[in-house]
Amino acid sequence: MNEYDIAVIGGGPAGLAAAIEAKKHGGTVLLIDREKELGGILQQCVHNGFGLHIFREELTGTEYAERFIKEFKELGIEYKLDTMALNITEEKVISMVNKTEGFVNIKARAAILAMGCRERTRGAINIPGTRPSGIFTAGTAQRFVNKEGYMVGRNVVILGSGDIGMIMARRLTLEGARIKVVAEALPYPGGLIRNVVQCLEDYGIPLLLNHTIVDIKGKDRIEGVTVAELDENRKPIKGTEQFYECDTLLLSVGLIPENELSKEADVELDPITGGPVVNESMETTVKGVFACGNAVHVHDLVDYVTEESRIAGRNAARFVNGETGGYGPAIRTKPGNGIRYIVPHFIRKDKVEQSVDLFMRVNKIFTNKKLVVKFGDTVIKIIKKSYMRPGEMERICITAESLKTAEDLSLTVDVE
Question: What are phi and psi of 47, to 5 degrees?
Answer without folding.
Answer: -85, 165
